[in-house]
Amino acid sequence: MTGGRARTAVAVCVVLVGVTCLLGVGAAVVSFRASDALLVPRPVATPYGRLDPATAYGLPFATVHVVEPLGRAPAWYVRGRTATWAVIVHGMGAPRAEALPMLPLLHSRGFAALVITYRNDPGAPSSPDRLSHLGADEWRDLDAAVGYAVAHGAARVVLVGYSIGGEIVCNFLRHSASTGRVDAVVLDSPVLEWRGPLATAAARTSLPSPLVGAAERVVSWRTGVDLDDQDQVRYATEFGVPMLLLQGAADPVTPVADARAFAARNRNVQLIEFPGAGHADEWQSDPLQYNRAVGSFLVGLGPS
């Protein structure tokens, strides 16, 4: 090879290395931004956000404060007639008003209701990194709320989780010393694993599908969360409490396939699907079916 050709070859190699480095940096930046879509809590519009919690459905609320691991967090409390409390966990970025359609059903059974907030919610303490930990740490806030309920007269507890609230509830059931207090669980559009929702979040940022795996690694690196350990479908057989799982068949965020796989592995899970319903949209799509399903499930829980 002549000197001129050698210099040309070296120049081409330098250019290729430079382009590869730039592509790598660009991929890292895009993956980081995609991880933000999953980890940075943002307000989510719901049909319930403008309802007045003090008057909705004629149920009076009081605001109480639960001492969670990171500090005091506000919660709505509805008085009940029995020693059974429902502790309700909303979805990421959703307001506590997301729980309002459930409250009349719980109240009709005489249950007290505690609609909680958790780290990084408005009015609640922020986590040190201000990022969602996808339920891996937030379950400790639910644990504190169950402790609050028990300290204020709850003998038994029903857990209700929406979206990421489902992941939080499942982690509570796997890790809390208070699991024995729980009689039943209602999950509405629950996140049961994170790879499906991450792919959806990535698509909203126009992340190319080959980079989704990189975004998963960025999520784990930023939070220290093991996504495999947050796959509740893998642990489905470990949940011994009765569960009602309400799932939209057209949910673009939490795949209906996850709900079906979870229910197929655990005979304690009753799955009710809502054809055409999107994420956390089951009640809106068919209030009658929703109320009937939850009401029938709660009938199996005798009043205290």
Could you explain how this protein is built, in words?
With 304 residues, the protein is an alpha/beta fold. It folds into 2 domains: 1-40 and 195-229, no CATH class; 60-193 and 230-304, 3-Layer(aba) Sandwich (Rossmann fold), CATH 3.40.50. Helices cover 38% and strands 17% of the residues. The chain is built from 9 helices and 8 strands. It has helices at 3-39, 103-108, 139-151, 164-175, 195-204, 212-223, 256-264, 282-285, 287-299, and strands at 62-68, 71-78, 84-89, 112-116, 156-162, 182-188, 243-248, 269-274. An 8-stranded mixed beta sheet has the order 1-2-4-3-5-6-7-8, with helices on both faces. Helix 4 (164-175) links the parallel strand 5 and strand 6. Helix 1 (3-39) packs across helix 5 (195-204), helix 1 packs across helix 6 and helix 3 (139-151) crosses helix 4 (164-175). The longest helix has 37 residues, at 3-39. The chain is globular, with a radius of gyration of 22 Å. Mean pLDDT is 85; it is low at 9-27.
Give the mean pLDDT. Answer: 85
Q: What Rg is obtained from the alpha carbons, in whole angstroms?
A: 22 Å
Shape: globular
Beta-strand residue fraction: 15-25%
**Amino-to-carboxy terminus distance:** 90 Å
Q: Look up the CATH topology of the largest domain.
A: Rossmann fold
Which structural category fits the helices and strands? Answer: alpha/beta
